Queue: 2 jobs
Job 1
Amino acid sequence: MKLNIIKQRTLWWAISVAAIAIGFIATLISWQQFGAPLRPSLDFVGGTRLQLELVCTRTESCDGPIDASEVREILAAEGLAGSSIQVVGDQQNALSIRTTTLNVDQRESLLETLEAELGEIDPTLIQIDTVGPTLGRQIFVSGLTALGASFLGIMIYLSLRFQTDYAAFALLAVLHDVLITLGFFAIMGLLFGVEADSLFIVALLTIVGFSVNDTVVIYDRVRETIRNNPGDHIDDIVDAAVNQTLTRSINTTFTTLLSLVAIFLFGGETLKYFALALIVGFIAGSYSSIFIASTLLALWRERTGRAYAEVTPADAEPADSTP
Amino acid sequence: MARQRSLLLLVLILAIAAIITLVNLPIRLGLDLQGGSQLTLQAQPTEAVPEITPDKLEAVRNVVERRINALGVAESVVQTVGSDQLLVQLPGVSDPAQAERVLGGTAQLDFREQKSGTEEQLAIEFQVQQELLIQQAQLEAAGEDADAAAIAANQDALDRSQAAISDLFIKTDLTGEKLSNAFAAPGATGSAWEVGLEFNNQGAEEFADLTRNVAGTGRRLGIFLDNELLSGPVVDVRYAETGITGGRASISGNFTAETANDLALQLRSGALPVPVEILENRTVGATLGRDSIQRSIIAGLAGLVLVLVFMVLYYRLPGAVADVALVVYALLTMALFALLEVTLTLPGIAGFILSIGMAVDANVLIFERTREELRTGKTLYRSVESGFYRAFSSILDSNVTTLIACGALFWLGTGLVKGFALTLAIGVAVSMFTALTCSRTLLLTVLSFSQLRKPEYFCPNLPSSNPQAKATS
C-alpha cells in the first residue's frame, strides 16, 4: 500500500475541516443549551449526584422497576424540582439523580424519603458525588492550565529537538485532534446526554501526548530522509517518510485501541466515556499525523522557499532531478 | 554474548523480584476501589482571621483530625492541600453524613452576660425570632410550591434577629477551651437531650463569677455556639452569693440524641479557629468499589491478551519476544506501584491498561525498522542491531512528549487526575526500559540459536532472491 499524501492533500484537509466544522456547530448549539461548549458534568458546575441501588436487586426480590415519575414527585416535594432522574441497572432498580449542590441535611432527608417510598437502599452500593460550585471552577481552570502547560512544554521540547516550524505544525496537528474530540463529545452530549467530566480533560491531555508522539515519529523520519537525500524535493521526502512509517503509525494506534476497546467494553460506567474520548482522539491523532502534519510541513517549506534542504553548494544536486 | 547473558539474568531477577513484591506487598487501593468517603474542606477566612496562614491551616487540620478520630474510623487520613484546603479520607465509610455534620461546625462555644437594662428589648427580640421561626417552618413545609425567594428573605430576617440578640450580650473570657469534658445526656424532661459540660479549674472559677453576676438580676446568661444563642437561662437568686460552683453546667436546646452527641464531640475536640466549608464529597460504597476492581481486572486482562495475540500474529518471532517483554513490563510496573506506594484509583487503572497498549510502541518501531533493514538486504543480525539503533531517537522523542503531558497533569491536576498521570508516567518509563533492554537482549539471545535464525520468522514475504539475508554473523 502506498499513499499519495501530497497529491491528495486538498482531500485530507477537506475531511479535517469538515469534521472540525461539524463539531464546532455542535459546540455552538451546546453553548446555547448549556452555556458551555459541552454538556458539563457536576465536576465543573457543581451539584450533587446520588447513585443508589435497592437492596432487593441482589436478592432479586424487587416488586418491579422503579417508577421515574414517582421519584420525580418525591424530589419535587423536597423542593428539588428540575433535577435529572435516570432509572438504571439491569432490573431497573437503581437510580441516578443529579440535583443542585445539597448540604448534608438536605441529602439525608432526601435519602430518607426515597428509602421510605421505594424500599431499602443498599449502603454498600451507594455513590455520592457532591461538588461545590467554586471547586468546579477550580477543577476547570486547573484542567485548562494543564492543557496549556503541556502545549508549551511540548512546543519547547520539539523546538529544541527539531526546528520551530516542525514544532508549530506538530502542535497544530494536536490542536486538530483536541478540536475533533471536543466536537465529537459536543455531539454526544446533545444526542445522548453524555457529560464531560474531569476525566474528559485527562483524556484530552493524554491525546495531546499520544498524538504528538505519532507526529514526532514521522518528523523524525522526514529529518532522516532529508539527511540521506539532501537533493530531493520536500514533497517526495514527506511522501516517502510517511509511507515508510505508515505501518508503524497504524500498528501502534491499533494496539493502543485494543486496550482502549477493552476498557470501553468491560471497564464499567466511570471509564466508558473516558475510553471513548481516547479512542476518538487517538484515531484523529493518527489521521492528523499522517495526513495533516506532514502535508502542512511540506507546504510551508515550499512556500518559504526551502523545498530543498540547505546543503553546501558542493554536494547539492541539480534541481531538475526531481519531478 | 557475556553481556547479553548478564542482562538476561538481570531481567529474570527483576521479574522474580517483582512477583515476590506483588505477593507480599499489596497495592494500595484508592477509596473509589475499596469503598469509602473522601471530603474536601476549605477553611473560610473571617473578619478576625482575614487570611488563612499555614499555621492556621495546620491548627484546623489538628482539630479536624481529632474530630475524625473521635468518630472511630480506622485508617482515616487528613491532609492539607494547597493553601486553604484539607482532604479527609474515610475508608469504608459509605454514609459520611455524621462526619460531614461533625466537621461542618466550628463549635466555638462561649458564655456571655446580658447587658444591663436590655431585659425588655431581649424579650421583644425573642418574640420576633419565634415568629420568624414559625414562618420559616410554614414556608418550608409548602414542599413543591415552596417559594425559594420568600424562604431566603425570611432567613435573612432570622440572621438579623440573631445578630440583634447577640448584640445584647457582652463576651466574657469563658469559652469552650476551658472545658475538660462534654457529653450528651438525656434531659430531665421527656425526650429532649442535653449536653453536659465540665469545666477545668479556671473555667469553673469564671463560671462561678459569671453566674454570681447575673443571679437574681433578671438578666440572662447567654450560651453561644458559633455566635448563635443556643440557650439563655436565668440563674436563680439563691446563687447570688457564691455563683454556681463545682464547674458543671448543661446546655439544653432543641437537641436529639444524635445532635447532642455531635455537639459534645465537637466541643471535646476543640473549636475550629475558622469555619470550614465542605467543597467536595466523593463517596463510593464498598461493594460498588469491589465491582469496579473486578471490571478493571477483566478489562486489563482483555487488553493484555488482545495486544499479545496481535503482536505474535503480526510480528511472529519478534512479536513473541515483545510479548515476553510486555509481560515483564506489566509485572515490573505493578511492582513499582506497590513499592512507591502509589494509590491505585480507577483512572489510575485506566492509565495502566492504556500503557499496556502504548508499551509495545517501542517494539513496533524497532521491528518495523528491522524489517526495512532486512528488505534492503542486510543480514539478520545487522538488521536487528540497526533496528534498535535507528529507532532509538524516535522512541526517546515520543516518550518524552508523553512524559511532558503527564508532568502537566501531575503538577496542575487534582487528586483523581494525579493518579492517572502517575501510573501513565511510571508505565512510560518502565516501557522504555523493557523495550530497550529486555526485548533487545531476548531477541539477540534468540538469534544465537541457529534453528531460529530464519529471516522469514522476522519478516514474511521477504524476496527470496536476497541471499545475503540468510547469512548471519
Job 2
Amino acid sequence: MNTPRIFADFHNADNQGRLRLNSIGTVEDLACHNIELQDGKLLTLYSEDLEVEGVVQYSTEEKLWVAAIDWNAIKQMDDLAVQAKY
Amino acid sequence: MIENWENLKNQIEAYLKNQIEEYLLFIEISASELSSSEKKDQILEAIKQRTKEERPQKYLNDLQRLVEESGDSPYAELAQRIPNEALVVRGGRNLPEDIRRGMGTHPCGITGISVECALGLSVKELAVNIPHGQVGVTTVGEVRKTEGDVIRTSGRSPHHATLSGLTPEQISNLLTPTYPNPAREQ
C-alpha cells in the first residue's frame, strides 16, 4: 500500500525518539497532499536521501503531532535504488 | 533568554524585600504594645537579627537551585547558556532550502532549526544520533557572531539544541561545506 510521502526533519525528535511533525517542510507537504493528521495514520517520512515508515501519534506531553519510527529501519536512497534494481 | 531569568530574579528579590520591610514594620508596631520596654527592645533586636540572616538572597539561591534541579520550569532550559566553544553539528547537505524546510517552533517556544551541540564533545560524538551520510559543523561562537544563538532544548539526545535568530541562508553558510559523517564511517 502506498503511503503519503511527507518531509520530516530527522533531527527534530522528542525524547521518545518520535519525529515532530511541525517543521515547515512537513506542514507544506501535508497541505500539498491535503492530509489531516490522526492517530495511527501511516506516513512515509523523508529528508534528503533518507526515508522511513512512521505511525502518527499525538503527543499529549508536547501538544503536537509526532511520528513513531524505527531508527534502525531508516533507508538511504542508494539502498532503495539497489532494492528496486534487484 | 538569560535576561528573562535575571528579570524574574529581580522581581522576586524586590517582592521579598518589600515583604520583609512590611513584616519588620508590623513587628515594631506589635512590640510597641508590650508593657516591658526592656523586653520589647530584646524581642525587636532578635527578630531583626534573624531577618538579616535570612536575607532574600538565601531564598533566591534556594529557588534557583530548586528550578535547576526540577528541570520542569520553562526557565530551566533557557538558563543553560551553551559556551561559545561548543561545536554545533547538523546532518545533511545543509543547503538553504533544506534548512528552511527543517525549521519549526520547538514546544518550549523557540523557533529555529534542530542541531546537536555540547561543550567538550567531538563531531563524531555529536553525530552519533545523526542518520545522514554527511554533516555540517560550526561553533556556538560563530552563530553568536552572526547575531544568532544556540539554545538547549529537549530532544531525542541530551545534546539536542535549537539554532535560532538566523535566516536559512545564514545557517547554510555556517554549516557548509559538509563532510562525511564520522559516526557512520566504517
